[in-house]
């Protein structure tokens, strides 16, 4: 917020403390959008050898005027190859834009936009402990797992797998974080309902949440370690064979054998 302006000295006094949280969020969002747009434009200028200011004058600034922000225009170009937007730019800037928007520039611009702005699916995970000590407990646990996976949707497929008894993880991937958390929470509830109907128990250790690549990597490393620990150790077969080989074939019914000296 501008507090006062000193025209003689050329100073402007600003106060961030007096800016409302809503305005701060809006400014930060606009700044991050503009930062990404500039990064794309600068990379296009470097790879095509075009002047950055000329690219701004014929592409970015007209898009700010037409769409409110060039970021919003770039988002539409992720799916429609940008033909409609290139046409609007040529109409807005005329021959200058037509000359600048060569096939090389268009290709470089679309390539950078798709690489930087194509949304990446989020991985959602929940950790639970499940046990069932009744008769056919394993079958009841399998049924509970199928009940959890049955809550899958086309956008959010649910998978449930064993880490180490009694720990299980439920995972899904989606572009919509809230939807993914909602589906995985419903999967946990379906699994709990199924196992409790068979006198089993399910405890949610960590509720559905978005996980990072690091979290996913740590889980995979843990699974690999458990798999290696459960794998048969080299040499087990040989030791078994050694235990089987004793004193050879003995005719027990023949009685003791002595050698007279």
From TrEMBL:
The keyword Protein biosynthesis applies. It comes from the Eukaryota. InterPro entries: TIF2_asu_C, TIF2_asu_middle_sf, TIF_2_asu. GO terms for molecular function: ribosome binding; RNA binding; translation initiation factor activity. Residues 225-254 are annotated as: Disordered. Residues 233-252 have a biased composition (Acidic residues). GO terms for cellular component: eukaryotic 48S preinitiation complex; eukaryotic translation initiation factor 2 complex. Pfam families: EIF_2_alpha (PF07541). Belongs to the eIF-2-alpha family. This is Eukaryotic translation initiation factor 2 subunit alpha. The lineage of its organism: Eukaryota, Viridiplantae, Chlorophyta, core chlorophytes, Chlorophyceae.
């Amino acid at each position: 917020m501008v507090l006062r302006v000193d025209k003689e000295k050329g100073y402007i006094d600003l106060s961030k403390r007096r800016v409302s949280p809503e305005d701060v969020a809006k400014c930060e969002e606009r700044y991050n959008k503009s930062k990404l747009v500039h990064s794309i434009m600068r990379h296009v200028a470097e790879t095509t050898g075009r002047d950055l200011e000329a690219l701004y004058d014929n592409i970015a600034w007209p898009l700010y005027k037409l769409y409110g922000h060039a970021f919003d225009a770039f988002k539409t170009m992720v799916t429609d190859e940008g033909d409609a937007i290139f046409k609007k730019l040529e109409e807005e800037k005329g021959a200058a834009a037509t000359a600048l928007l060569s096939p090389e520039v268009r290709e470089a611009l679309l390539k950078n936009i798709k690489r930087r702005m194509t949304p990446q699916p989020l991985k959602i995970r929940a950790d639970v402990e499940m046990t069932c000590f009744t008769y056919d407990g394993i079958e009841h646990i399998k049924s509970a797992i199928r009940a959890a996976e049955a809550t899958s949707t086309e956008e959010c497929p649910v998978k449930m797998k064993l880490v180490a008894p009694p720990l299980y993880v439920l995972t899904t991937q989606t572009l919509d974080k809230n939807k993914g958390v909602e589906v995985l929470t419903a999967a946990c509830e379906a699994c709990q309902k199924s196992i409790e109907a068979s006198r089993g128990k399910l405890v949610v250790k960590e509720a559905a949440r978005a996980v990072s690549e690091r979290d996913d990597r740590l889980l995979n490393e843990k699974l690999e370690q458990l798999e290696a620990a459960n794998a048969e150790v080299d040499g087990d077969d040989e030791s078994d064979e050694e235990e089987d080989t004793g004193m050879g074939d003995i005719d027990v019914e023949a009685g003791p054998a002595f050698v007279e000296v």
